[in-house]
Amino acid sequence: MSDPRNYWEHCFKKIDPETYNFSRSKPATILADFCEKYLKDGANVLDLGCGGGRNAHYLAQHGYDTYGIDIAKGAVEFCQKRFARYNLSGIFKQGTFDHIPFANDYFLGVICIAALDHITLECAQTSIIEIRRVLIESGTILLTFDPPDTDEDILDEAEVLPDGTLKFIRGEQEGMLFRRYKDEEIKSLLGKQNIISFDYTEDGARVIVCR
User: Fold this and answer.
1) Are 111 and 133 in contact (CB under 8 A)?
2) Is the pTM of this model over 0.90?
3) Which among 4, 22, 128, 138 has the fewest CB atoms less than 10 Å away?
4) Which of 85, 59, 151, 140 is nearest to 114 (CA)?
5) Per-residue pLDDT at 17
6) pLDDT > 90: percent of the chain
């Protein structure tokens, strides 16, 4: 399972959207505030790295024109079944962060929650360019990065790639990538001049609103 795509596909083989208890799948707590401050009613929003659709679900329920992209086909299918179960409208596609399958200047908002640190630095740099390509000039991006000490107890299950990204080679997270960004690395990645706000959750995750 060394391919990162296989790791995420494996995650979605474990859950059945027909029986899953979606009351356990709640949106990120910072999403409501972002929507209220930065998104117009009915805006089209991309959930990049949508996973099981917890944040896309919130967006659709609150009247946003919702789209989702995920590397895993299983995640896309899970979201489609989830939306069908709740009679929600949304478009989900399989794709990668560095090749977003939408036209230039398409979205008013892009959210990427706890996902951009699961790719290599080079891929993240390209992905930021892609995100800005599909975002309209007045649009806004919401990003979160996990605390830099995440997975501290299983570091011996990972190898370190040349750019500092961890690639797990054994254990339950085999195949997963994780890059432990320091604050200054995030600011460098995004460009300090593009950052609107840079905050922290109680557990130390970084929450960034930028352009």
Assistant:
1) no
2) yes
3) 138
4) 151
5) 83
6) 85
Q: Give Cα separations from 74 to 33, 98, 138 (angstroms).
A: 29, 19, 33
Q: Give every CB contact of residue 84 below 8 A, 6+ residues apart in sequence.
A: none
Q: Are 63 and 40 in contact, with CB atoms under 8 Å apart? A: no
Residue type, 130: E
CB 62 within 8 A of CB 34: no
Residue pair 45/113 in contact by the 8 Å Cβ criterion: no
The pLDDT value given to residue 2: 57
Could you tell me the two tokens for 198? 């840079």
CA distance 206 to 204: 6
Q: How far apart are CA 34 and CA 110, in angstroms?
A: 11
Q: What are the residues whose beta carbons fall under 8 Å from the beta carbon of 159, sequence distance 6 or more?
A: 166, 167, 169
Question: For 52-110, what is each residue's pLDDT tens digit?
Answer: 999 999 999 999 999 999 999 999 999 999 999 999 999 999 999 999 999 999 999 99
User: Is pLDDT of 199 > 70?
Assistant: yes
